[in-house]
Design goal:
The complex is a heterotrimer of chains A (235), B (225) and C (243). Chain A has 235 residues and is an alpha/beta fold. Chain A contains five helices and nine strands. By secondary structure, chain C is mainly alpha-helical. Chain C is globular. Classes of the chains: A alpha/beta (235), B mainly alpha (225), C mainly alpha (243). The interface between B and C is medium-sized, with 30 and 31 residues.
C-alpha cells in the first residue's frame, strides 16, 4: 500500500487557505505539433491532466515523450497548437509566478545536481525549502529512498542509482497542489524497493492534489489510477 | 529587481566557489606569463617597456580571460541545472545575474591583486595604480559581460574555446582602446576623464545588452536538448 | 507588411518571384558595370594629387558600402529569424554572410592597392581600413558560429543572436576605432570620404555603386535559390530512404 507522508507535504508553501480551498488546475494541450531539427515529432496531439491526476506518456524511443515533456516545460517551442491551464495560456517559463498559479518541477537524467556538492547541499538548493538542518531532520523521520547513508558525500562519488535516488528525494519536497511534476523516465533503473518508494511518492503528490505527467516504459500501480497516452499512435 | 531565485543562485555560487577558485588562479598565472613574454620578445629597454606597459597589462588581462570562459555555463548545462533554474521564479535572469557576479568577484580580485607586481615589472610609477586598478576593474566587468554572451552562444559547439575567442576579441576592442587610453593619458599627464566616461558608457551598454543576449542564447540551448 | 513577408516565406512563391528578379538584376548589373568601368577608367579625370591611382576608389568605396550594408542586412535577417522564426530569414542570412565578407575583404585589398602607390606601404592603420578589418572579423565570427554546431538549426539560432549583438556593437566599435585613430594618427590618410569629390567623379561612383548593389542582390538571390534546391533534394532523399 503506498505510504503517505505528511512530513514531506509542503502545505506551508502556498501560504493561502489551501486546506479549505485547494486550487484546482486543468492542463490542456490541443493540436500540438513539435519539431526537432527538421523532423516532425508529433502533429495534432491532444492531452489533458488535472489536479490529482497522473498522466503517463508511453511509446517507443524517439516517439516524442521527452519532447512533449520539454514542450510543456517551455523548453521546446510548439510549432502548432496551444497549451493552456484553466483555459488561460500556460507558460512554464514566465518569470513571475503569482502565489496561486501552477508551477512545474522537472526531472530528467540530467538531474541538475551539482556534482561537486554533497547530496545534502544539493537538496538545500531548492526554492523555499527550509535550511540544511531541517532537511536532515525531515530525512531522519522519513527517507523514502534511503539516502541517509550518503547524504554527506559529493554527488560525483555516487553511483548512478544512488544519484537517481537523491534526485528523486528532491521531488518529495515539492509535493503540493501547486506543482505539476514533469518526469522523464524517473523510474528506469530503480530496484523494486525504489520502485515502491517512487510510487508512494507519486501517491502522496496525487493526494495533495498535485499533477504529474511522466514518461515511462514501466506500468504504474493501478491503485494510482494513472491515465495513459500512447504517443506512437499520434504520428 | 528580480528576487525570485537570485538569492538561491547566489547561495549555490557560494557553495560552488570553493571548487573553481583553482581555475581563476590559473587565469592569474596566465595573466602574468603573457605580460612576461613581451619583454622577452621586445627586449628589456626600460623606456620601451614603460611605453608598452599599460597596453601589455590590458592585453594580458583580455587574453588570460579567454581560456576559462567556456566554463561559465558548460557545467550547469551538462548537469541539467539550466532546466531546473529556468522553471523557478525569476528563471534564467536570476541565474545569469548570480553567475556573473560570482564569476566577476572570483576573476577580478586576484587580477587586481597581482597587477601591482606587473606595474613594477614594467617600471611604471606605483601612483598609476590608482588609475589602473579602477579601470581594470570596470574593464574586466565589461569583458565578463562579453564573455557571457560568447560563452552562451558557443555552448556545445565544436572547438568552443577557439570560437569563443573569435567572437569575443572583435567585440572587446572598445574596452581595450578606452581602457588603455585611461592609463596612458594619466601617465602622459593629461586628463583621463573623457576616456573614463567612455569606458563607463561601454560598461552600461553591455550591462543592458549582455543579459538579454545571454538569456536568449541559453533558452536556445534548452531548445536543442 | 507582414503579409508580404508571409507570402514570400513560402519557398515556392519565393522561387517564382526571385526567378523574375534575378535575370533583371544580372543584366542591370552588367550594364551598370560596363558603363561604370568606362566612366571610371576612361571618362573620369585623374586626381590632381593621386593621379590615376584614385580610380581604385571606384571599386573601394562601393565595396566598403556593400560590406557594411550587407552586415546590417544580415542583422535584419537575424532579427526576423530570432523574433518571428521566419524560415527564409535564415536562408537569406546564410546567403549574405560570405558575400558580405568577400566585399569587406575586397575593400581591404583595394584599400591596400590604393595606398601603396601613394604611401609606399601595403597597409596603413587608418580609421576606415581598420574598421573594415574589424567588420571582416565580425563576418568571420558569424560564419564560424553558424557552421560550428552539429545541428544546423542551433548554429542558425546562435548566429542570429550574434548578428544582433554585432549590429548593436558595431557603432561602438566604429566609434572607438575612429577615436583611436584621431588619438594616434592625426593626419588622416585615405580620406576618400572626406576629400572633396568633384561632380565628374560622382557619376562613375554612383554607376559603379548601382552595379555592385545589383550584382550583390543577384548573387544573394542565386545562393538562396541554390540553398532551397539543396534542401529539397536532401529532404527528398531522406523521404525516399524512409520508404
Amino acid at each position: 500500500m503506498p505510504v503517505k507522508s505528511e512530513l514531506m507535504n509542503t502545505k506551508a508553501q502556498s501560504g493561502s487557505t489551501e486546506d479549505s480551498h485547494p486550487p484546482h488546475f486543468r492542463l490542456d494541450g490541443r493540436g500540438i505539433a513539435l519539431l526537432r531539427g527538421q523532423k516532425q515529432i508529433c502533429a495534432g496531439l491532444d492531452f489533458s491532466v488535472s489536479s490529482g491526476e497522473i498522466l503517463v506518456l508511453r511509446g517507443p524511443n524517439g516517439s516524442g515523450k521527452s519532447s512533449l515533456l520539454r514542450a510543456i516545460a517551455g523548453f521546446l517551442p510548439l510549432t502548432a497548437g496551444q497549451i493552456s491551464c484553466n483555459n488561460k495560456p500556460f507558460d512554464a517559463q514566465r518569470l513571475e509566478t503569482p502565489a496561486d498559479s501552477l508551477r512545474c518541477l522537472w526531472y530528467a537524467q540530467a538531474d541538475g545536481l551539482a556534482e561537486t556538492l554533497t547530496s545534502l547541499e544539493n537538496l538545500s538548493l531548492l526554492p523555499k525549502t527550509a535550511p540544511k538542518t531541517n532537511i536532515e531532520a525531515q530525512l531522519s523521520l522519513h527517507d523514502p529512498f534511503s539516502i541517509a547513508g550518503f547524504l554527506h558525500q559529493p554527488v560525483r562519488s555516487l553511483s548512478t542509482g544512488q544519484r537517481q535516488r537523491v534526485a528523486l528525494t528532491r521531488q518529495c519536497f515539492a509535493s503540493s497542489a501547486l506543482y505539476l511534476w514533469l518526469l522523464d523516465e524517473p523510474n528506469s533503473g530503480l530496484d523494486s524497493a525504489g520502485h515502491k518508494a517512487f510510487e508512494a511518492m507519486l501517491a502522496t503528490h496525487q493526494d495533495a492534489g498535485g499533477l504529474s505527467v511522466l514518461a515511462s516504459h514501466h506500468l504504474l500501480d493501478s491503485r494510482l489510477t494513472p491515465r495513459y497516452l500512447d504517443l506512437s499512435d499520434e504520428m | 529587481m528580480m528576487i525570485g531565485n537570485f538569492t538561491l543562485c547566489l547561495q549555490r555560487e557560494a557553495l560552488l566557489g570553493r571548487g573553481v577558485i583553482g581555475d581563476h588562479l590559473g587565469q592569474v598565472a596566465f595573466f602574468v606569463m603573457i605580460a612576461a613574454l613581451f619583454p622577452l620578445a621586445v627586449g628589456p629597454s626600460p623606456d620601451l617597456l614603460r611605453q608598452l606597459g599599460p597596453s601589455v597589462i590590458w592585453i594580458s588581462a583580455l587574453l588570460s580571460a579567454l581560456p576559462v570562459f567556456d566554463r561559465l555555463f558548460a557545467e550547469d548545462d551538462r548537469q541539467g541545472w539550466l532546466e531546473q533554474v529556468s522553471l523557478m521564479q525569476g528563471g534564467l535572469t536570476g541565474y545569469v545575474g548570480a553567475r556573473l557576479i560570482s564569476w566577476y568577484l572570483l576573476s577580478v580580485l586576484p587580477l587586481l591583486g597581482i597587477t601591482p607586481v606587473l606595474v613594477l615589472l614594467y617600471d611604471l610609477p606605483l601612483s598609476s595604480l590608482k588609475v589602473l586598478l579602477p579601470s581594470l576593474a570596470i574593464g574586466t566587468a565589461c569583458l565578463n559581460l562579453l564573455g557571457a554572451i560568447s560563452a552562451s552562444l558557443t555552448l556545445g559547439a565544436r572547438r568552443a574555446t577557439l570560437l569563443l575567442a573569435l567572437l569575443l576579441l572583435p567585440l572587446s576592442l572598445p574596452v581595450l582602446i578606452f581602457g588603455v587610453a585611461i592609463t596612458q593619458s594619466y601617465l602622459a599627464g593629461f586628463s583621463f576623464a573623457g576616456q573614463a566616461k567612455l569606458l563607463g558608457a561601454v560598461f552600461l551598454f553591455l550591462l543592458a545588452v549582455s543579459p538579454v543576449a545571454t538569456i536568449a542564447a541559453l533558452r536556445s540551448v534548452l531548445e536543442d536538448k | 507588411m507582414t503579409g508580404l513577408f508571409d507570402s514570400l516565406a513560402n519557398p515556392t512563391r519565393f522561387r517564382t518571384v526571385s526567378a523574375v528578379i534575378r535575370p533583371f538584376c544580372f543584366w542591370a548589373a552588367a550594364i551598370f558595370f560596363i558603363f561604370g568601368l568606362y566612366l571610371a577608367l576612361l571618362a573620369s579625370p585623374p586626381d590632381y594629387q593621386q593621379g590615376d591611382a584614385v580610380r581604385i576608389m571606384y571599386v573601394h568605396v562601393p565595396a566598403a558600402w556593400l560590406g557594411l550594408s550587407s552586415y546590417l542586412g544580415l542583422g535584419l535577417c537575424a532579427l526576423f529569424y530570432v523574433v518571428w522564426r521566419h524560415p527564409l530569414a535564415n536562408i537569406a542570412a546564410r546567403a549574405i554572410a560570405p558575400i558580405g565578407a568577400g566585399f569587406t575583404a575586397l575593400t581591404l585589398i583595394t584599400g591596400s592597392l590604393w595606398g601603396y602607390p601613394i604611401w609606399g606601404t601595403w597597409w596603413v592603420w587608418d580609421a576606415r581600413l581598420t574598421s573594415m578589418l574589424v567588420l571582416l572579423f565580425f563576418f568571420i565570427g558569424y560564419i564560424a558560429l553558424e557552421t560550428g554546431f552539429e545541428r544546423p538549426e542551433r548554429g542558425a539560432r546562435m548566429a542570429s543572436i550574434l548578428a544582433l549583438v554585432g549590429v548593436l556593437n558595431l557603432p561602438i566599435v566604429k566609434f572607438s576605432v575612429d577615436w583611436w585613430n584621431t588619438l594616434h594618427q592625426p593626419a588622416s590618410i585615405l580620406r576618400s570620404g572626406g576629400m572633396a569629390i568633384d561632380v565628374s567623379m560622382l557619376w562613375p561612383l554612383f554607376t559603379m555603386f548601382a552595379g555592385f548593389q545589383l550584382f550583390f542582390i543577384w548573387v544573394v538571390l542565386h545562393r538562396m535559390h541554390w540553398m532551397l534546391s539543396e534542401r529539397r533534394r536532401v529532404a527528398g532523399k531522406a523521404r525516399a530512404k524512409a520508404m
